[in-house]
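Fill in residues.
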């Protein structure tokens, strides 16, 4: 029986090649999106699943609280480092505690301000227990002693190959910038296991004491007052639960906050809680991630898009199957006359739908192979290190998914077609009306085109928003400047050398690039006795920064190049900070004192600068400050005159004189700022654009099915009208006006929905484009143009058909 079903299904596919192709193509488009998202989520689900102790491994999360006890900002995956020791020493139920500290080499994100291309690897300082808790296996070295001694490092196999040519690099030494020389004591196996912690090397945590002793690291970062320097992971003993540990964490948090003395740093209220290793990715959106992860918000977003596309694809199959039903009505009647039961007819059509779905699966895999390079080339996909590698389980899920989609898509047509009565279909097939009393087919089409128009308008709006960011005035000069990373180079020496060239107009030191979303931040207050402080973003800059950036000094004076120590205790505020601290005017603020919450150190306000967008333009202007400390400078901004190539040549020459053994790392200033917006918004434009394209293609296929159904059921009526003198143009209008009414209904529904949805995210952006008439009109024009071409392809064919061919059998 099954063999017969398959033979009949394949025969019908060959007989109706055009409509079979439309069915398969429509389902394949929707499936390719779903398969890509399934593969992406499946890849994320593989992270840390190799760990046999994963149900007992937890990460401590920090949550800041407002005075009323409500959540303040996003939670952080980092926590004070002393938590590890106090939990193990004073409480039971903790088998092992692992501290992971940032600062060894580069971080996993390229936008980190201290990134240095001359440091050969990225990684962390970790406790020796990390190898056991995270089940990192060593190919070379002894796991028990590899991370015991100071200045020891364990490398990944890829890092070992990159740094050394020999097969066994144990005992070799690598220099990691100003952190010193490290002895290789282990090499990890390359077993393909995925961990949410991304690194090339793990250095011994005991090294930190030496780095603090020589002031390379600040010893305060290892204390209770620092919530961002590192991460703490726990391995619970069998039989103990996360709830038990969280109650202990609650006790510790209360004790620490009560122990704070007047005049000490007064942090916001906070609590700690645990996050299981398996729930990190996919997981909630948390600040300070230790590696790339996929927020569940992305899963919901991509899953929602895929669901919309897949449902519209199934709608298309239903519409097209019913539209072609009349061509098989006699077949069904003959089968029933010869003894076929309804359930057999039902399963015949279900099997055909499943076979079509399997063909669509094969085509969708080809689509996926074609789209995969594009998806992996997206900037945020690179940054988050996403992958789309399949395995036997993923492909098994694909096959099951295809069968389910086929059954869902074919269910409704199978129910309708299997209930045909033989007497009616064999006696008067031309008088049959499918869905004649149902508005479902029209409703589905309206929904499809409504979604398509929403996507089209959203793409146009995202593109306009991207262009606004790229072309906007940030409040500072970006032209004719090159940004040079210091990479552990003397700021003063490089600046002096650069200033010897006549085409170098200005050289300024800075800790951060403006407008890319990364700053320092601390609490400041006007009086020591004030309980609450105000959060102030800040950069460290030198005395030439304002001239370099063309930032106007509104009141007071700039930093003094002849008085370095005084500069370190001085501060420049922007106009927004003047308002935040409730000074009556910029001039009134000059000479006043601000106290740093962390250590109560005092800073004199020596000047006020004009507001500029130091953060992303997504955010509104916030209070910010400029401070002075050459040890914090990570880059110099070189302003030049004349040809760009000549400036680059002089920068390279100056660098070679100062650091002949190190590579120079430079980028055009404006390109570095604008590329950040392109990275975020251009990816979304691309993703939503592809989804919009697929949605409109699927909707047009559905419209094609409906147009085919109409013309096939009205061919005799059309022929009679032509014989009675109706013109071809009148027939085209007659057949098309109903479909254009559906498009108008879709437009009426889509425009307010698109306005509502897009304004929801636009309101979260400080500098935003407008959803105006031009955007809506262009979206509507695209929809009508594509819909008109689809409708015309069938109505024109029907109107120009020879009436004799349609009436010769009557």
């Amino acid at each position: 029986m099954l063999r017969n079903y398959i033979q009949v299904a394949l025969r019908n596919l060959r007989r109706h090649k055009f409509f079979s192709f439309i069915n398969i193509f429509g389902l394949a488009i929707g499936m390719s999106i779903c398969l890509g998202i399934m593969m992406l989520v499946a890849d994320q689900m593989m992270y840390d699943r190799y760990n046999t102790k994963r149900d007992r491994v937890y990460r401590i999360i920090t949550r800041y609280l407002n005075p009323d006890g409500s959540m303040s900002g996003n939670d952080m995956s980092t926590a004070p480092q002393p938590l590890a020791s106090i939990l193990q020493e004073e409480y039971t139920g903790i088998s092992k505690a692992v501290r992971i500290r940032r600062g060894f080499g580069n971080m996993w994100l390229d936008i980190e301000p201290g990134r240095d291309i001359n440091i050969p690897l990225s990684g962390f300082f970790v406790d020796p227990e990390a190898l056991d808790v995270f089940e990192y296996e060593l190919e070379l070295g002894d796991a028990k002693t590899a991370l015991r001694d100071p200045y020891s490092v364990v490398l990944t196999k890829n890092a070992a190959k990159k740094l050394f040519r020999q097969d066994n690099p144990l005992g070799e030494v690598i220099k990691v910038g100003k952190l010193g020389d490290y002895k290789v004591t282990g090499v990890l196996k390359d077993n393909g296991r995925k961990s949410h912690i991304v690194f090339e090397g793990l250095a011994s945590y005991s090294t930190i004491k030496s780095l603090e002793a020589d002031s390379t690291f600040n010893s305060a970062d290892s204390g209770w007052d620092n919530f961002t320097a590192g991460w703490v992971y726990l391995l619970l003993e069998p039989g103990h639960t996360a709830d038990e540990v969280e109650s202990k964490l609650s006790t510790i948090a209360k004790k620490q906050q009560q122990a704070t003395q007047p005049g000490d740093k007064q942090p916001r209220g906070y609590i700690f809680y645990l996050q299981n290793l398996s729930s990190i990715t996919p997981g909630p959106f948390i600040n300070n991630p230790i590696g790339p992860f996929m927020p569940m918000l992305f899963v919901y977003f991509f899953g929602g898009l895929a669901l919309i596309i897949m449902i519209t694809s199934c709608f298309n199959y239903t519409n097209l199957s019913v539209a072609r039903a009349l061509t098989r009505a006699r077949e069904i009647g003959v089968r029933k006359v010869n003894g076929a039961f309804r359930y057999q007819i039902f399963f015949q059509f279900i099997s055909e739908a499943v076979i079509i779905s399997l063909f669509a699966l094969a085509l969708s895999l080809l689509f996926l192979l074609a789209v995969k390079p594009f998806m992996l080339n997206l900037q945020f996909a690179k940054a988050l290190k996403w992958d789309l590698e399949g395995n036997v389980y993923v492909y098994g899920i694909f096959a099951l998914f295809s069968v389910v989609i086929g059954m869902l898509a074919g269910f409704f047509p199978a129910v309708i077609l299997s209930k045909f009565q033989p007497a009616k279909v064999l006696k008067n097939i031309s008088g049959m009306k499918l869905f004649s009393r149902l508005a479902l087919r029209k409703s589905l089409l309206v929904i499809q085109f409504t979604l398509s128009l929403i996507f089209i308008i959203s793409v146009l709006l995202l593109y306009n928003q991207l262009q606004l960011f790229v072309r906007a005035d940030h409040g500072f000069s970006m032209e004719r400047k090159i940004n040079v990373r210091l990479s552990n180079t003397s700021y003063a020496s490089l600046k002096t050398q650069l200033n010897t060239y006549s085409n170098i107009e200005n050289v300024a030191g800075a800790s951060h690039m403006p407008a890319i979303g990364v700053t320092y931040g601390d609490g400041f207050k006007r009086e020591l006795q004030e309980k609450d402080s105000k959060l102030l973003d800040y950069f460290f800059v030198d005395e030439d920064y304002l001239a370099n950036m063309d930032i106007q000094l509104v009141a007071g004076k700039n930093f003094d190049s002849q008085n370095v120590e005084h500069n370190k205790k001085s501060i420049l505020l922007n106009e927004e900070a003047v308002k935040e601290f409730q000074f009556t005017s910029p001039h009134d603020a000059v000479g006043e004192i601000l106290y740093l919450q962390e250590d109560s150190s005092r800073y004199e306000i020596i000047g006020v600068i004009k507001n500029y967008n130091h953060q992303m333009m997504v955010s509104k202007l916030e209070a910010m400050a400029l401070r002075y400390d050459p040890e914090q400078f990570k880059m110099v901004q070189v302003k030049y005159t004349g040809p760009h190539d000549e400036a680059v040549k002089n920068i390279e020459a100056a660098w070679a004189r100062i650091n002949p053994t190190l590579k120079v790392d430079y980028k055009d200033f404006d390109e570095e700022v604008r590329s950040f917006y392109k990275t975020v918004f251009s990816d979304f434009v691309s993703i939503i654009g592809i989804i919009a394209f697929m949605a409109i293609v699927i909707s047009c296929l559905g419209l094609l099915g409906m147009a085919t159904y109409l013309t096939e059921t009205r061919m005799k009526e059309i022929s009679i009208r032509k014989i009675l003198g109706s013109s071809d143009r009148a027939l085209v209008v007659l057949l098309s006006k109903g479909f254009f009414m559906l498009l108008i209904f879709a437009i009426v529904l889509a425009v307010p929905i698109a306005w509502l949805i897009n304004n929801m995210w636009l309101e979260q952006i400080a500098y935003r484009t407008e959803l105006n008439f031009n955007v809506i009109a262009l979206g509507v024009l695209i929809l009508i143009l594509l819909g008109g071409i689809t409708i015309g392809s069938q109505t024109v064919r029907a109107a120009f058909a020879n009436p004799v061919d349609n009436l010769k059998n009557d």
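The chain has 25 helices and 21 strands.
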